[in-house]
Amino acid sequence: MDEKKGVTAKQDEDFSAWYTQTLLKTELADYSQVSGCMILRPYGYAIWELIRGFLDAELGKRGVENCYFPLLIPEKLLAKEKEHVEGFTPEVAWVTHSGDSALPERLAVRPTSETVMYEAYSRWIRSYQQLPMRLNQWVNVIRWEFKHPVPFLRTREFLWQEGHTVHPTRESADDEVMDILHLYKRLFEELLAVPVFEGRKSDKEKFAGALYTTSVETFLPNNRAIQCGTSHALGQNFSKAFDIQFLDKDEKKKYAWQNSWGVSTRSIGIMLMMHGDDKGLIIPPRVAPVQVVVVPILFDDSKTEVLKASKGVAKALKKFRVRLDDREQYTSGWKFNEWEMKGVPLRIEVGPKDVKNNQVVLVRRDTGEKTPVGVKDLAKAVEALLDDVHSSLFQRAKKRIDDCVVETEDYDEFLKALEDRKLVLAPWCGDPECEDFLRAETKGVKSLNIPFGQEGVGNCVRCDRPAVGRAYFAKSY
Ligand code: 86X
After folding, report:
1. Which of 199, 228, 392, 412 could hold 449 in an S-S bridge, CB 3.0 to 4.6 Å?
2. Domain for residue 396, yes or no?
3. Ligand 1 centre from 356 Cα, in Å?
4. DSSP per residue over 165-204, as a string?
């Protein structure tokens, strides 16, 4: 028999070893020959497809249409919005040759699609009647980073959706920024069971091409914060650079108001880190490629009945993503370990005694709790249990994060909490210079975001000038 071992690294001893070992052993992802570029195996890619399914349905309701713009961006076009590209230039990958001959103009491999999309928008948009225009694309992008890669969280190539919308007024654009931000919060909380906090990015941390940037952020079990998604108000910065003007109702030509927003495959890594344990992954039910695994417990004298009953169980659960593991070369114990490691939220054991009693045993991955259930109530019980696994995972993560929050107005306490790897909430002026000082004094701590509606909370924790709100700070990815 195959003696494939489970996860041996322990979260408490070496979280990053636990993480990479788990990804590899569960066949979710793999390394490739290019540093920073990873393989998404079917089990991992299925999670991305479920995320996409949720967002496509929600974006569709909002009148967002999917499209595809080219991977390659001429240098001239990329350079057109110098201000926002400048800081990123070392990360741009270039196509320079076909065969042995140099191209007349080198082509950037898209690091993001503002320039290539907005060049077309300037040719397409003429009238207020075309607005708002809302396009989205699901694509790969490349950013040639030099920090050490972390699967899903920091890779040179990743998949994302990027939405790019055009509005006739500032109000229409502002409303959408918040609507998409709330949608991202729902994606993380209702699908991935990852608690997030919404807020506005500091001037230092916002996208340079934006008027303002909003984000959802979270705090991982290894005491590092991470950005989960961003929704930007671009104002008229790009419409002026790319000449995107429309004739309004009042017959005046106006520059359009634009937004862009994105969520990437990083969301998968965040979810996996948030919920896993020393046995391996725990995948929240709504994004689990396999929600229920049925494992027959086979003995020579009852094999036929048990297999038949197991098939019936799998059939009765067709509306879930169910898998019948009837492989005969593995013991049921081996299968339990394998599916636990792979993070399947619910296991159904079917043994000879269960068949006699017309019942099965449900086992939760998150708590290990076992519940016998009669076969006629099965679909209902499974549905309820999956919902309960989702809320338990969310609550457990929420509590862990809340327990790490330190709220303070005192600078010494602030520094101490950051040193202790807490998630710190403190009144802050928001000034880029103050953020530079903070970063220098704390070995790289950044502001995450500034939750909305926190104005008038006193004075900045560091410089004592009036605070613009309370900001979250932590060591982050
Ligand atoms: C910023 C902004 C924005 C659409 C999003 O965050 C959501 C979806 N785009 C992306 N950004 C860059 O503009 C950028 C540009 C270049 Cl040239 C680069 F090499 C890296 C970049 N990284 C981020």
Report:
1. 199
2. no
3. 61
4. EEESSHHHHHHHHHHHHHHHHHIIIIIS----EEEE--TT
For each of the chain's 477 residues, which pLDDT tens digit applies?
Answer: 344 579 999 999 999 999 999 999 999 999 999 999 999 999 999 999 999 999 999 999 999 999 999 999 999 999 988 778 888 999 999 999 999 999 999 999 999 999 999 999 999 999 999 999 999 999 999 999 999 999 999 999 999 999 999 999 999 999 999 999 999 999 999 999 999 999 999 999 999 999 999 999 999 999 999 999 999 999 999 999 999 999 999 999 999 999 999 999 999 999 999 999 999 999 999 999 999 999 999 999 999 999 999 999 999 999 999 999 999 999 999 999 999 999 999 999 999 999 999 999 999 999 999 999 999 999 999 999 999 999 999 999 999 999 999 999 999 999 999 999 999 999 999 999 999 999 999 999 999 999 999 888 999 999 999 999 999 999 999
Q: Which atom of ligand 1 is nearest to the CA of 261?
A: 7
Q: Is 286 a domain residue?
A: no
18 token code pair: 């636990």
- CATH code, 454: 3.30.110.30
Q: How many domains does the chain have?
A: 3
Is ligand 1 within 6 A of the CB of residue 230? yes
User: pTM for the complete prediction?
Assistant: 0.97
* CA–CA distance, 376 with 469 (Å, rounded to integer): 55
Phi, psi of 411 (to 5 degrees): -65, -40
Distance 73 CA to ligand 1 centre (A): 14
